[in-house]
Write a structure and sequence with these properties.
Blueprint lengths: L1 H29 L3 H6 L1 E2 L1 H9 L3 E5 L3 H6 L6 E2 L17 E5 L4 H12 L4 E4 L2 H8 L3 H9 L3
Parallel strand pairs: 1-5, 2-3, 2-4, 4-5
Helix pairs in contact: 1-5
Length: about 150
């Protein structure tokens, strides 16, 4: 009997949690407007400013092998397929900016994080755009401006 009650409680908890996430996504989509479209995107320059101000956390959501081949030196790598199991690595007090080379996976990650009530954006320039911005003197200025 105790097992049955525990099983039922766990099952209802899972169902309720799934419903709550679905409802958050439905709310996000139902309230989607031009302002939301703008607010969900961060450009490379904006990201740099947010990182230097200590207001954002960059999450590179590429696969481990992609990250090992090259990465920016700031932020953390949480592959998209590992994100649900690694939410504890995210700083709820910061804007979570998801990024990949272009933006397809970053948009998926950002949307998922919205269902988990994170303040999140995606890098609209992609990591390639960020790499382009952080060349030469810009790279030095960026690193020098990062919080210690």
């Amino acid at each position: 009997m105790r097992y049955a009650i525990t099983f039922l409680a766990t099952t209802f908890g899972v169902i309720f949690s799934a419903f709550a996430e679905e409802q958050k996504l439905a709310d996000f989509i139902g309230n989607f407007d031009y302002d939301t479209r703008i607010e969900m995107k961060a450009g490379a320059r904006e990201l740099v400013d947010l990182l230097q101000e200590g207001k954002a956390q960059l999450v590179d959501i590429r696969f481990k092998e992609e990250y090992e081949a090259w990465h920016m030196g700031v932020g953390i790598n949480i592959p998209l397929n590992e994100l649900p199991d690694r939410l504890n690595e995210l700083d709820k007090d910061k804007i979570i900016v998801t990024a990949c080379p272009h933006k397809d996976r970053a948009i998926i990650a950002m949307t998922y994080l919205k269902t988990k009530s994170y303040n999140t954006m995606y890098l609209k320039d992609g990591l390639i755009g960020l790499a382009e911005l952080l060349r030469g003197d810009n790279a030095k200025d960026f690193i020098d401006g990062m919080p210690k």
